[in-house]
């Protein structure tokens, strides 16, 4: 990584001659000034209980010149890991990489050095190197160790590194569907619909009845108002008896948008009672009833509406059910007859 990073700095940052001489005299690649603070103050690197390079000792080193004196001093794997953090905090990137790599080789079943390597590559924007390392690491790691690695990324909200991890994991035979599902969910949460769709499509090509993939496709189609797709994925899930939350609402909404109100009402009736207790569900129900028959009795919605009122809903019955009052009925008649 040393030569590649140095070349990037030379080509992209146009450092002045004096700074170049300083960099070469140090025989190590210090990152540009604008990145130093980010790297040096990053709190995501993980320490291990160590004998010589304790956290207190690492924190006591305050300059790159002082840090250079510790090269090659760590013997045990935990000390090498923590020495790597010392080098990171002083922007000695190549030294840090070497220590983390050595620590990982000595502790192949401990995810901490590997997690620190991934963090390092991520911070210096070397995604190619991170994928190269993870490709080897994941192939050699048992499933339990891979899960520990993933859990740390999840628990510490290292989302973008989790994407790199899952992308690498998708190249491990037998892990493709799991990795793609995680990537699809991530991009769905970020509202990056094209990328989420890409991974969902890969899942369904390999496993056409994958419940979670079909469920996410259903939700995406609903958000994007692709009503025919909603019906395809919704009825597919219903047909195989693999229900996802709000399934009937999604299908009913699609039929409503296509002005097929009888079919929409049929799906509304099939929804679980607990899912009928939401304002959007009741709005759809009311819309379908009145669209099918402007004089329809909407009092069937009252028990659900009153439960919502008891939970703090601010709408009054008169506001939500205009046809339940004489004034509301008169207003609806005028609308129906264009007066």
Low-confidence stretches: 7-31, 334-339
Order of helices and strands: HHHHHHHHHHHHHHHHHHHHH
State the helical fraction. Answer: 55-70%
- CATH fold assignment of the domain at 29-172: Serine Threonine Protein Phosphatase 5, Tetratricopeptide repeat
Number of helices: 21
Q: Which percent range describes the beta-strand content?
A: under 5%
Principal-axis shape equals elongated
Protein name: Tetratricopeptide repeat protein
InterPro entries: TPR-like_helical_dom_sf (IPR011990), TPR_rpt (IPR019734)
What does this structure look like?
It is built from 21 helices and no strands. It is mainly alpha-helical and 339 residues long. It has a domain at 29-172: Serine Threonine Protein Phosphatase 5, Tetratricopeptide repeat (Alpha Horseshoe).
Brief summary of the model shown:
The protein is an all-alpha fold.
Task: Summarize the helices and strands and which ones pair or pack.
Layout: H1 2-13, H2 17-26, H3 33-40, H4 55-60, H5 64-68, H6 77-88, H7 93-106, H8 111-123, H9 127-140, H10 143-155, H11 159-169, H12 176-189, H13 193-206, H14 211-223, H15 227-239, H16 247-257, H17 261-270, H18 279-292, H19 302-310, H20 317-320, H21 326-336
Helix pairs in contact: 6-7, 7-8, 8-9, 8-10, 9-11, 11-12, 12-13, 12-14, 13-14, 14-15, 15-16, 16-17, 16-18, 17-18
